[in-house]
Design brief:
By secondary structure, the chain is of the alpha+beta class. The protein has 2 helices and 6 strands, in the order E-E-E-E-H-E-E-H. It has a 3-stranded antiparallel β-sheet with strand order 1-2-3, with no helix packed on it. It has a 3-stranded antiparallel β-sheet with strand order 4-5-6, covered by helices on one side. The relative contact order is 0.22.
Length: about 140
C-alpha cells in the first residue's frame, strides 16, 4: 500500500474501478473512475548523488616546497616548488547514488483532476502496484473491445 503522509494520495482498485483517496488537511476525498479512464501509469524515482572525497595529504609539504622555491628563485620558484613532488593519490572521490523518492503517477481522463501522485517508501511495492494497474487497464481494454 502507498505510504501515509499528512497530505497525500492513496489508491484502491476494484473489479472495474479505481479509487483515489486524497488526504488534504485532515479531509479525505474519494474520487472513483472506471479503469478505462486511466490514460497512463508511470513509476517515477528520484535519485540524489552523494560525493565524498579525501583531501590531499601532501598539502603541507607542497606549501613548504613553494616557500623554499620562492626563497631561492622568487615567484617562479614558488610555483615550481609547489607543483613538484609526488602526484600519486592527490584527490580521491567516491560518488554514490541514493534513492530519494518513489512515486506512482496515474493520469486519468478528468479535466479537473487529471494526475494523481502516490508516494511510496518501497520500490518493490511501487513496481507491484504499477504492474497491477497496467494489467487491470489492459484487461479492461480487452473486455471493452
Amino acid at each position: 500500500m502507498p505510504t501515509s503522509y499528512a497530505n497525500s494520495t492513496s489508491l484502491a482498485i476494484g473489479e472495474d474501478v479505481i479509487c483515489f483517496l486524497k488526504k488534504r488537511m485532515g479531509n479525505i476525498t474519494a474520487l472513483i473512475y472506471p479503469l478505462r479512464d486511466i490514460l497512463h501509469v508511470e513509476l517515477l524515482t528520484e535519485h540524489t548523488t552523494v560525493s565524498t572525497g579525501a583531501l590531499d595529504k601532501e598539502g603541507p609539504a607542497k606549501i613548504s616546497r613553494a616557500l623554499v622555491g620562492g626563497l631561492l628563485a622568487g615567484p617562479t620558484g614558488a610555483v615550481i616548488g609547489g607543483l613538484s613532488g609526488n602526484r600519486r593519490g592527490v584527490y580521491n572521490t567516491t560518488s554514490t547514488s541514493r534513492l530519494k523518492s518513489i512515486s506512482l503517477l496515474v493520469t486519468v481522463k478528468d479535466i479537473d483532476n487529471p494526475l494523481f501522485t502516490i508516494p511510496y517508501l518501497d520500490l518493490a511495492e511501487a513496481k507491484k502496484w504499477e504492474s497491477i494497474l497496467k494489467v487491470a487497464v489492459e484487461e479492461d481494454d480487452q473486455n471493452a473491445g
